[in-house]
Design brief:
36% of the residues lie in helices and 7% in strands. The protein contains ten helices and four strands. It has a four-stranded mixed sheet, with helices on both faces. The chain is globular, with a radius of gyration of 21 Å. The chain starts with 6 loop residues before the first strand and ends in an 18-residue tail after the last helix. InterPro entries: AB_hydrolase_fold.
Length: 308
């Protein structure tokens, strides 16, 4: 198979240390996911809410045509979900708290109130004032804030409000608070974060600064381990040739790829996982292929339900 022209789909049987991107060592996402395995209080690996799951055998890598057939075929009439994983499905967990990309919350809140005030033509001072605005004004204010966000950031992130969103997805998985019945086909692209990684990050020092901004309260020892062992200098690995490629791979695995491992762990590896690597392999590039749209320009209008 030509690696530039296929969708690699494989039964997910890679827990306990095999990296799922182009690395010879276990990646950051793999390290974190192995830590989460150990958090299961009953002494068993995995976070599945379905303890009766049988043992699963791995299946060979198959091409796109067979993937279409395999993903849609199941003798049992059970729900099937196809999940192209991204930063908005943030599943990272540790024993103490959820891991998520840092956001300057106070700054974003103040910018939101200012943008809403400007759009509404009157002072908007708090959440109650925001709630009284019409949808059009809120959308305009939202766009204003996102437009000014830093390169690769999205301004707004997941909010656990205790009502509509009860908990972080990773914590819900850890506690077994999820529906184990869907059959999942998970996916990630070969170069997810390339388009989100600022081109100005091109040195060891700027990588360290990005890590401090992206991970709450990260310790110096953790940064040292990540950059010495998991993602070493370009001169010490053949995974990348520049510092910018180094941070792009790190962020791809940290933000995108590791989530497929968490879901696979939660479903005891009863999942399918594809890695899309048609050049350039950037985030969202796979969607037209995933939902079988011949005209890439029509991908934005695809109804995903028939495909899953």
């Amino acid at each position: 198979m030509e690696s530039e022209s296929c969708l690699c789909l494989k039964k997910d049987d890679r827990l306990n240390g095999v990296n799922i991107v182009n690395s010879g060592k276990t990646c950051l996402g793999s390290r974190i996911s192995r830590s989460t395995e150990q958090l299961n209080g009953n002494g068993k690996k995995g976070l599945s809410a379905n303890p009766s799951s049988p043992k699963y055998k791995s299946s060979p890598i198959v091409d796109l045509g067979y993937a279409r057939h395999k993903a849609g075929y199941n003798a049992r009439k059970t729900p099937r979900c196809l999940i192209p994983l991204g930063s908005f499905l943030d599943l990272r967990v540790t024993a103490e708290k959820a891991w998520y990309t840092s956001l300057p919350v106070a700054q974003i809140w103040n910018e939101t109130l200012a943008a809403a005030s400007k759009r509404a033509g009157r002072p908007v001072l708090n959440g109650a004032d925001l709630a009284r605005l019409d949808s059009k004004t809120l959308l305009q204010a939202n766009s204003d804030v996102v437009y000014k966000a830093n390169y690769g950031d999205f301004a707004y992130g997941l909010t656990v409000d205790g009502g509509f969103v009860l908990d972080y997805p990773g914590t819900s998985l850890l506690k077994g608070h999820f529906d184990p019945s869907p059959h999942l086909m998970l996916g990630h692209n070969s170069h997810e974060d390339d388009i989100f990684t600022p081109p100005t990050i091109n040195s060891h020092e700027t990588i360290v600064a990005k890590l401090r901004m992206s991970i709450y309260s990260i310790r110096d020892s953790a940064i040292e381990y990540i950059l010495d062992e998991l993602y070493p200098s370009p001169s010490k690995t053949n995974l990348y040739t520049t510092e910018h490629e180094r941070i792009a791979l790190l962020l791809s695995e940290y933000i995108f790829v590791c989530n497929s491992r968490y879901l696979a762990t939660s479903f005891r590896n009863d999942t399918w996982n594809h890695r899309f690597q048609v050049a350039l392999g950037n985030h969202a590039q796979d969607l037209a292929y995933t939902f079988f749209v011949n005209n890439a320009s029509a991908a934005a209008n695809v109804d995903s339900e028939p495909a899953v």
